[in-house]
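Re-running the complex after MR caught last week's input typo. The corrected sequence lines follow. Everything else is unchanged.
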Amino acid sequence: MSAQGSRRKGQGGDDTRTDVAPQPVRVRTVKEIAAIANVSVATVSRALQRPEVVSEETRRRIHEVVKRLGYTPNAMARNLRTARTRLVVALLPDIANPFFSEVIRGIEQVAYENGYSVLLGETQSSLVREQSYADMVAARQADGIITMFHRVPPIPVEGRLPVVNACEYVKDSAISSVYVDNVAAATAAVDYLVTLGHRDIAFVAGPATSPICVDREQGYRLALQRANIPANPALVAVGDFSIEAGERAVELLLSQGQSFSAVFCSNDEMAIGAMRALLSRGLRIPEDVSVVGFDDIRFSRYTSPALTTVSQPKTALGREAMTMLIEILNDPDVPPRKRVLSAELVVRGSTGPRGRGPGAR
Amino acid sequence: MSAQGSRRKGQGGDDTRTDVAPQPVRVRTVKEIAAIANVSVATVSRALQRPEVVSEETRRRIHEVVKRLGYTPNAMARNLRTARTRLVVALLPDIANPFFSEVIRGIEQVAYENGYSVLLGETQSSLVREQSYADMVAARQADGIITMFHRVPPIPVEGRLPVVNACEYVKDSAISSVYVDNVAAATAAVDYLVTLGHRDIAFVAGPATSPICVDREQGYRLALQRANIPANPALVAVGDFSIEAGERAVELLLSQGQSFSAVFCSNDEMAIGAMRALLSRGLRIPEDVSVVGFDDIRFSRYTSPALTTVSQPKTALGREAMTMLIEILNDPDVPPRKRVLSAELVVRGSTGPRGRGPGAR
DNA sequence: CACTGCAATGTAATGGATTACATAAAACCG
DNA sequence: CGGTTTTATGTAATCCATTACATTGCAGTG
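Corrected-run output:
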């Protein structure tokens, strides 16, 4: 065994670049390394895991062999033994949604900093797929889950569920979550419209199944109430967060002849759709109608006019979620926390003082 | 052992819903299942892996126990034994780039259909991170890699490299790739501008390190040449694919007083930046300057005016890449292929007949 | 000097499944 | 009916690293 190894390349090795070599790369095991370095497998393992418990001299020898032979411990064997995979699943409905992809980026950053990797769990809103990713935790193929849903799939594991909720949150549960105060943020957005003189403010809601949407709608109502503006249910339309939905929602309102001088949308994509619908009706933004979104995705800055929106700290949400998950994984007894990050309104060109509005002919 | 299992819940079990139970879920092993079902571990394993080799009666009994106890085989143990993880790494520079996230979606779809999962490898263009993801394959924590770079990191594994190149491609190598014919697509885009009467066509290039950018630039040159328009190097600016870069590039051209009636950009984000730069100079699109992008990301349809662009089959690129990778993983001897998908120009509002142009005062 | 304690290393158990090989029972065949 | 397949199941080896426990040697101490 040792003969094999040393036959291939002599002792005089500054051949460090050989890891790109086309042919003779062989997969090694601790055993081989141990044999060649003339120590036991335990020592090799220790030299790699906790170098400080191995004598200087031995450590050097082992590291030399490891490097020369390009040895990488088999992660699966290690995982099996240590019962940790250093993998976490990020569950989200849609990776092409720029909001989520920025949250993911935050998750990925913290994961990387802590030696974890992120498994992409795009569910396309399918319960089956959601469950199948959750099952990876049961199968010990992943250590935990960050879900960006308002629903936590059942995971048959002992003890503390290694789950963190990001962006969304599950109300009644002992699940840690990170999110923004959607009520307050929505209120602030609508307040701003009110200070601009708007009184007929339409709202394009998201799916009512999602608590954060309920919150945003509540924020909208609260702001109206505070300004003594009676809520007008006819000015509320529902969408599914897509650009198209925003477009359709506003088209609907317009075709119903509703009168409004501002639209607040539950997310930026619907706001972009809303703007398109308004523009294609020949309405000017913000002269005729003001538009406000929610999320502050990358493109909101580049619509014309640029979109006024509630800016969520997307990367921070992801970072914080991953940080929490790591905490739980390191110590299942840390109490669940609900962490609220702050969102703030960024004013751009899509809002202005109250104009005539489409209904005000 | 068997006593434990049956003590917890009697025989009369339509308690299937218990997998959500808060407390008593225990992690099981084949051994326990075998003991309870009164068979050997081998039979349990077979009943789960290749049910057809197990007798009807035994199979039913085992499945009943498995279901009742909520047993999921430990994936790490299986992986160790079978030397397959059913995980692949998707290497990309930036997950927040909508182009990549749609490619990823295609990858994810095919992966899911074939029982694979996708590990997100966002490198943020760091070589170290790129390598660290590549090393996961060496460590047998992943089976293969789909890279969206123009560079394939060295992976110390025996035999065929389990790598597929998507969108980008490595010229000289035996690596399978999927991409579009960038030269032809770029040529078509510029041809179209020529037919609209444009002769002073600026080009916002991407980083020259990337072969596809070189190709797109070549396509641009080719089209000009074919139309007998002398190439004007002063009309070529370089960006890094970001919106901001596109903005800066066009600002630069404008501030240099260059005269052009159309801009072709190496990707949509730069085109969006370009549009912004033009608009903020008071130029009209397309009356004064036409703009063409490349990629056809989701938002291009919603800029105003909507962006004319070369539409890449993003999801298909991802699907095809993953399909190829699975092929390689199933049979390391399949010859490497370069698969070229077709891209087509979609004409929207950002292009029109040659106008006055900024230089044409 | 005998004894304790620590440092360095080794031996072997362990994690949990898969699967080659062995065996037993049943089916088939002339 | 003896012999050959076929079918169903069991036994035990295997994947490869980690780590509890055992061992050895040496320094320190009364």
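None of the earlier attempt is carried over here. Chain A has three domains: 2-73, 84-180+314-341, 182-311. Residues 29-31, 41-42, 44-46, 49, 73-82 of chain A lie near DNA strand D (CB under 10 Å from a C1').
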